[in-house]
Write a structure and sequence with these properties.
Layout lengths: L4 E5 L3 E2 L16 H10 L5 E5 L2 H7 L3 E5 L1 H9 L4 E6 L6 H14 L5 H13 L4 H8 L3 H12 L2 H8 L5 H14 L1 H16 L21 H15 L3 H9 L5 H14 L13
Parallel strand pairs: 2-4, 3-5
Antiparallel strand pairs: 1-5, 3-4
Helix pairs in contact: 1-3, 4-5, 5-7, 6-7, 7-9, 9-10, 11-12, 12-13
């Protein structure tokens, strides 16, 4: 389909912030782009779709801005009264327009995962299937599923995910905790994950991965989680030193030295294995 670029008056374009995947864009958010456009001009035109008569009457605008919200905001800051635009007369379907808007933002990597999830929810409400969304965005089914998992989490946790505090694997774990153990357990799991991150450690909070009654070899992350819990409750001691040895953080000789020191303190005798000097 041939598309023509035309100069359109800014006053004729409706910048619908509810429609835009990025939501509200404040002038301060586009300061760098403003300087770039001022210096080099607008390299890529925005995309608009003509409004049907009922929407023209409702909004007082002839077009809806479909893609280019940051560019349009920047040009408004610069005082432009018109802007180069591609008019998509074929884009009359609401779902198609939203998919186009989301696709551009995803390709430019301008959205956080929560913004992507909210945009997907709006498409779902319009009857677009997950499979169609994945195909039209060029993403996997798992990419789509992850974002719907996020929307099922408590709002407070969603905000922390949007801030980049959790990995995709951790979002799945939090989703499992929330479904199996409820909201408060999800909050506690999120707290544990944040504390572990601040200490540079990796832990798991998925209840399916660490049942208290199971007997098995533990991962390093599980050992470190247990060490952190013991340190918080009882402080450092022989318990945590044994766990550190099991995780490979200290040597045999280091642990034998700790055992000998504890035995001496308790008026007992500790004899290390033959040939070991401590």
């Amino acid at each position: 389909m041939e598309m023509q670029i035309q100069q359109i008056k800014m006053s004729e374009i409706h910048m619908d912030e509810e429609f835009n995947s990025r939501g509200v864009i404040a002038p301060i958010d586009v300061a760098d782009l403003v300087r770039d456009i001022e210096k080099r001009g607008l390299i890529m035109p925005v995309t608009v779709a003509p409004y049907p008569p009922e929407m023209v009457a409702k909004t007082g605008k002839k077009y809806r801005l479909v893609a280019g919200y940051r560019r349009s905001t920047s040009c408004r800051v610069l005082g432009w009264t018109s802007i180069p635009a591609i008019i998509r007369a074929d884009m009359v379907d609401e779902a198609e327009a939203r998919l186009f808007n989301l696709s551009e933002n995803v390709q430019r990597k301008e959205l956080n995962i929560l913004q992507e999830a909210v945009a997907l929810a709006k498409l779902k409400a319009l009857g677009v299937s997950r499979q169609d969304v994945a195909e039209k965005l060029g993403m996997s089914q798992g990419w789509v599923q992850m974002r719907f998992m996020l929307l099922d989490l408590p709002v407070e946790v969603q905000r922390e995910v949007a801030a980049g505090l959790f990995t995709h694997a951790q979002i799945r774990e939090l989703y499992t905790v929330f479904n199996q153990e409820g909201k408060e357990s999800c909050f506690e799991a999120a707290r544990l994950l944040k504390e572990a991150k601040s200490r540079g450690r990796k832990i798991t909070v998925d209840p399916n991965k660490k049942k208290p009654s199971s007997k098995r070899h533990r991962t390093r992350s599980e050992i470190f989680e247990m060490m952190a819990m013991i340190q918080t409750s009882l402080g450092n001691g022989l318990f945590t030193r044994c766990l550190a040895w099991a995780a490979g953080e200290i040597s045999d000789a280091d642990l034998y030295g700790d055992l000998k020191e504890r035995a001496t303190r308790d008026n007992k005798v500790f004899t290390p294995p033959e040939g070991v000097v401590i």
